[in-house]
């Protein structure tokens, strides 16, 4: 059973979103508009009255939180603060504490998230140079987090890598990793079902049936990066769930070249994805190896439009990544191969216009092959056509269906918060100066 978010706190009269608008924090930072509302509070757009610099301010409500929710808040701030020294991680500018709320002042990214950049504006798909440039930035940010143990007791493992948690700037040329709400410093963890289903590794989704069962955190992030790489290059997801009950993932388990038959990817990218989507985490490509493979990859897709030049340099230099640590006892059991069922998929109907209020947090899924669509996804207010050529090869899977699969439009993932307990620790910012 997948984890569900804890109950959202009820806003008090003092901390309700509307009365905060126009409020000035520390006599300097004025809240000007609402950017979004989450489970724990509200994110505001703000402006520094002295420098006129714009920020995003996350107001984390204290009222109505149970101890578990408060621990999630404290850990998110602590780990984000430790990771924010990297240029491709959203900067944490300052922390302002009040009796009712903790205000976290963050770098503002006016262009929104990577999800919108791919689906609404059509960036990256068909532009291999830009996709590579952006993916290398993201890869360097995650490597920085994993190697954070050089300066702290342990590295930081994000565990919820997805386009919605990656912000963009400079017309999509710069990306910033955000939202450390599910991050951990445990190299090996027993927190099964942590993250968003479409990006979880197979070992993360396994039920905890064995005593002391656990999995390595770093390879789980590598798997998520592989799904994001498919998002960037093809504008869709490879499957809905990396489990044997998903027909598309089952087809990939049966034929390692299956993605090449349904996606317009090059042989080079197909090889990279095979290394990333290795079911045994001990054999999965490391962060360092993945970066080398991406740098050396000459083409991601068939029919790329060729390189377009960025306005400025966009990704940071490579940084040392710590080695993945595995114990033989931690290895997951690889499920046996099963024959591919003969499925006949219905053609998707035309997308109906659906409008969302600005503060809604839609929950749905990325586009997946029809065999993976066990439920209807939340629809976006437009259809999005890929700009890359169809794959040249055809598998028996496609031949049996009689046509190339058509994919429904992308829609946002929900964020899942696990039921596991978090070790209790003191608030690290209690020792920091409060401005």
TrEMBL record:
Domain Protein kinase: 29-301
CDD domains documented for this protein: STKc_Pat1_like
Signal sequence annotation: none
EC number(s) recorded for this UniProt protein: 2.7.11.1
InterPro entries (UniProt xref): Atg1-like (IPR045269), Kinase-like_dom_sf (IPR011009), Prot_kinase_dom (IPR000719), Protein_kinase_ATP_BS (IPR017441), Ser/Thr_kinase_AS (IPR008271)
Example GO BP: autophagosome assembly
Residues the entry annotates as binding ATP: 58
Membrane topology reported for the UniProt record: Peripheral membrane protein
Reaction catalysed by this enzyme: L-seryl-[protein] + ATP = O-phospho-L-seryl-[protein] + ADP + H(+); L-threonyl-[protein] + ATP = O-phospho-L-threonyl-[protein] + ADP + H(+)
Gene: SKS1_3
UniProt record similarity statement: Belongs to the protein kinase superfamily.
GO cellular component: autophagosome; cytosol; phagophore assembly site membrane
Stated name of the protein: non-specific serine/threonine protein kinase
Single GO MF annotation: protein serine/threonine kinase activity
Subcellular location per the Swiss-Prot or TrEMBL entry: Preautophagosomal structure membrane
Major localisation: membrane
Keywords for this protein: ATP-binding, Autophagy, Kinase, Nucleotide-binding, Serine/threonine-protein kinase, Transferase
Species in which this protein is naturally found: Friedmanniomyces endolithicus
């Amino acid at each position: 059973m997948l984890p569900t978010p804890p109950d959202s706190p009820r806003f008090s009269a003092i901390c309700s979103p509307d009365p905060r608008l126009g409020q000035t924090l520390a006599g300097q930072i004025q809240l000007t508009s609402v950017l979004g509302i989450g489970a724990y509070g509200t994110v505001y757009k703000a402006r520094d009255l002295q420098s006129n610099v714009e920020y995003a301010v996350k107001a984390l409500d204290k009222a109505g939180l149970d101890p578990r929710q408060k621990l999630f808040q404290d850990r998110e701030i602590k780990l984000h603060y430790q990771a924010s020294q990297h240029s491709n991680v959203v900067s944490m500018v300052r922390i302002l504490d009040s009796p009712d709320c903790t205000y976290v002042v963050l770098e503002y990214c006016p262009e929104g998230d990577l999800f919108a950049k791919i689906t609404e504006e059509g960036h990256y798909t068909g532009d291999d140079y830009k996709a590579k440039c952006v993916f290398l930035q993201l890869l360097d940010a995650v490597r920085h987090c994993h190697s954070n143990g050089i300066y702290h007791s342990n590295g930081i493992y994000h565990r919820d890598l997805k386009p919605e948690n990656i912000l963009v700037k400079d017309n999509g040329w710069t990306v910033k990793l955000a939202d450390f709400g599910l991050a951990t410093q445990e190299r090996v963890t027993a927190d099964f079902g942590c993250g968003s289903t479409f990006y979880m590794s197979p070992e993360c989704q396994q039920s905890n049936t064995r005593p002391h069962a656990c999995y390595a955190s770093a390879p789980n992030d590598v798997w998520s990066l592989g799904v994001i790489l498919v998002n960037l290059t093809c504008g869709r997801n490879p499957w809905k769930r990396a489990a044997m009950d998903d027909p598309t993932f089952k087809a990939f388990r049966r034929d390692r070249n299956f993605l090449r038959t349904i996606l317009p990817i090059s042989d080079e990218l197909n090889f990279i994805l095979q290394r990333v989507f290795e079911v045994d985490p001990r054999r999965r490509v490391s962060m360092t190896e993945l970066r080398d493979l991406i740098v050396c990859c000459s083409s991601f897709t068939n029919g790329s439009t060729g390189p377009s030049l960025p306005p400025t340099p966009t990704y940071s230099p490579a940084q040392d990544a710590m080695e993945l640590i595995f114990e033989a006892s931690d290895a997951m059991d690889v499920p046996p191969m099963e024959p591919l069922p003969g499925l006949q998929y219905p053609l998707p109907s035309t997308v109906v216009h659906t409008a969302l209020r600005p503060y809604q947090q839609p929950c749905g899924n990325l586009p997946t092959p029809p065999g993976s669509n066990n439920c209807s996804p939340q629809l976006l207010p437009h259809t999005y056509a890929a700009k890359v050529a169809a794959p040249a090869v055809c598998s028996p899977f496609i031949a049996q269906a009689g046509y190339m699969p058509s994919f429904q439009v992308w829609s946002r993932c929900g964020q899942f918060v696990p039921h596991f307990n978090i070790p209790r620790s003191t608030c690290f910012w209690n020792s920091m100066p409060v401005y």
